[in-house]
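Hello,

Our lab assistant flagged a job as stuck in the queue for most of the afternoon. It eventually completed. Since we weren't sure the result was trustworthy after the delay, we are filing this so someone can double-check. Below is the sequence as submitted and the structure that was eventually returned. Let us know if re-running is recommended.
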Amino acid sequence: MAQSDIWTERYRPSAFEEVVGQQEIVKRVKSLVNSINIPHLLFAGPAGTGKSTLALIIVKQLFGDSWKDNYLELNASDERGIDVVRQKVKDFARTKSLGPVPFKVIFLDEADALTREAQQALRRTMENYTNTCRFIMSCNYSSKIIDPIQSRCVVFRFKLLEKKDVSSVIKKISEKEGLKISEEAVEALYEISEGDCRRAINLLQATASISPDINAEMINIIAAQTKPKDIKVVLDYALTGDFVKAKEKLLDVMLSESISGTDIIKAIQKEIWNLEIEPEIKVKLTEKTGEIEFRIVEGSDEFVQLESLIASFVLAGLGK
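-- returned structure --
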């Protein structure tokens, strides 16, 4: 286990009631577990929203202390080809469970990383061994799971956690670890994590290794996150027509804080909607931001492309 994952595992919920932000899903899954009549499940949604945690809770509630004997987990770090499905998965699925529950559970984490050939082999395994095995699959994008598998599963779609949910987790951990954390720091953790609770916890752990007294400035330093006020200065210079100062400030932000071009793009995209300009101009600048982001991802020079984006803001400020 990576050092940065220690708190994530230490404070992983162990009961349905402890899962935050996914109350409707938890309610439905809990009723299935209580009836010991669960179908194959597919958990789809963003990272850090509780998919793997809920799968573990299901297994522990079903099997109790013997859960490790009746549970197989394969994640993205394992080989995901057709041979794994034909051998490891099939061998585990065909054996009977130990205990009163009549089936075992196989958890395929990040199932969207399975090759299409492996998915085709998996669909037959799911059919043939339904009596002795249930599959729980998690993925970020359900569209990458072939339709025959989706049709065999009950699909639960997870959502990004709201601020109150992330805040409750952060404050609970801070209290147990003896940390002093400001409201501004909690706000910064939520803004940076964007609803990904795992990322928020890892950032909190990294920051706590420096000092138990945590503020927003420390969070931004650890996350290597550009400050909104710095981006606002760049955009203000550009909108007033001062391209040179905007470019110099942007270069300073990138070099002094070691911020990548894609992170700058994301910060600009958020800050656009706080600018005091016409909504139509905001829409055009957002479209331009998306175009520049695509070019950077495709391999164009970051600073040249960001200069081009600044030029668009200058022209917008001049009414062109």
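-- support follow-up --
The delay was a queue issue, not a problem with the job. The result is valid. The two ends are 54 Å apart (CA to CA). The longest helix spans residues 279-297.
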